[in-house]
Amino acid sequence: MNITFKSAVKNLVVFSTALFSTLTVAQSKLAIVIDDVGYHPKEDAAIFAMPREISVAIIPSAPYAQARNQEAKKQGRDILIHMPMQPLKQTRIEEGGLHLDMSAEQVINRVQKAKNIVTHAIGMNNHMGSAATADKPLMTHLMNALRTQHLFFLDSRTIGRSVAGKIAKEQGVRSLDRHIFLDDSNEFSDVQRQFQAAVQYARKHGTAIAIGHPRKNTVAVLQQNLRHLPSDIQLVGMGSLWRNERIVPPKPFILLFSDVPAPTSIAPYEPIPLLRGVPK
């Protein structure tokens, strides 16, 4: 009997240690933003069927922009304005975008119009914008406008010499940077490799921000990997990073037992109303 008791105690200690280790595992943050939302109902629906921690960036001029804005809000999903901005190449951008040499008033007007459409946005990121985000005057106007609208800025980092983060800091605007592009290539294997790169980046640096698009293989990779996300990686919305929330691991589950016998286990046995299992 003594051997059985010692064995039980040993097993309990092992179980408690394993449970404590599981509950206190260090976690890193992974935030995923899906750009170009608002154009294709089928692809958008696949994104909106994913966990609400997946943030969406909506282009204001997209035909379904207002509908996606309302849908995301209803789900409790974080929303960004995906603002078209001038690229280095002579590529036409969507209506309502930002161009070089715009005045402060013009920028404020366009940001306000975008916010009137994507009303529940908490931040903004750039659609294209390799020329725009490297332009100090334009970024100064933009950050002033974002501060007025209480929006943060996510730099998609479409150019290495972006000044957006530096100007944002100077203007008192919270700014974050994209770390990984999931789908520069649309090949499934390439998107899969980029997802794993985002996981590894999160483990190394504590946080990773990945940007993708509502495309077939991107959707497939996310559906597959989010079902089996490693236990040390926590999927978070962009709002969590904006607010600089910390991961608080759950407290260990500890059971405390009293060594005083229960009244019903001591003779004489007397029935107690509403207490099940008491012999009469």
Write the layout of secondary structure elements.
Elements: H1 2-23, E1 28-37, H2 41-48, E2 55-58, H3 65-75, E3 79-85, H4 104-117, E4 123-128, H5 136-149, E5 152-155, H6 164-170, E6 175-177, E7 180-181, H7 188-205, E8 207-212, H8 216-226, E9 233-236, H9 238-242
Parallel strand pairs: 1-2, 1-8, 1-9, 2-3, 3-4, 4-5, 5-6, 7-8
Helix pairs in contact: 4-5, 7-8
Keywords, separated by commas or semicolons:
280 residues, alpha/beta, TIM Barrel, 9 helices, 9 strands
Description:
- This protein has 280 residues and is an alpha/beta fold.
- It has one domain (28-243): Alpha-Beta Barrel (TIM Barrel).
- The protein is built from 9 helices and 9 strands.
- It has helices at residues 2-23, 41-48, 65-75, 104-117, 136-149, 164-170, 188-205, 216-226, 238-242; strands at residues 28-37, 55-58, 79-85, 123-128, 152-155, 175-177, 180-181, 207-212, 233-236.
- Strands 1, 2, 3, 4, 5, 6, 7, 8 and 9 form a 9-stranded parallel beta sheet that branches.
- β1 (28-37), α2 (41-48) and β2 (55-58) form a beta-alpha-beta unit.
- α7 packs across α8 (216-226).
- The longest helix has 22 residues, at 2-23.
- It is globular, with a radius of gyration of 26 Å.
Helical fraction equals 25-40%
From the 3D coordinates, which CATH architecture would you assign? Answer: Alpha-Beta Barrel
Tally of individual helices: 9
Structural class: alpha/beta
Please indicate the count of domains.
1
Shape from CA axes? globular
User: Separation of termini?
Assistant: 31 Å
CATH topology: TIM Barrel
Oligomer: single chain
Question: How much β-strand is present in the residues?
Answer: 15-25%
Protein name: Divergent polysaccharide deacetylase
Pfam families: Polysacc_deac_2
Keywords: Signal
InterPro entries: Divergent_DAC, Glyco_hydro/deAcase_b/a-brl
